[in-house]
Amino acid sequence: MRAQKQTSGLRCVICGSKVSVQRNHVGGQNHVAWFWMPFCQTHHDQFLAQWMMTKALQELNSRPEQNIGAEDSPQPGEPHV
After folding, report:
1. What percent of the chain has pLDDT over 90?
2. Which has the closest alpha carbon to 4: 42, 45, 58?
3. Average pLDDT in the 15-35 region?
């Protein structure tokens, strides 16, 4: 088993661990660089997976023509039935 790196002073905001904690730019490094939260490796990976899923869903929702059932959706100006 490899040795776990302890990061001085930082604790994971989810589990409180001090092992392998890294600062995560929650708002994205190029968007809100000052907004970060410390996560252990496990919770960093979970947060990143959730963030990627959210971004993918936002992309799908921004293109209604590619949504399932879009052909049944009323077009702008058409009445909802």
Report:
1. 27
2. 42
3. 81
User: What is the token pair recorded at 14?
Assistant: 């989810």
Q: Are 9 and 28 in contact (CB under 8 A)?
A: no
SS (H, E, C) the chain: CCCCCECCCCCCCCCCCCECCEEEECCCCCCCCCCEEEECHHHHHHHHHHHHHHHHHHHHHCCHHHCCCHHHCCCCCCCCC
Residue spans per domain, the chain: 1-60
Q: 5 phi and psi, to 5 degrees?
A: -85, 125
Give the other-Cβ count within 10 Å of 39's Cβ. Answer: 25
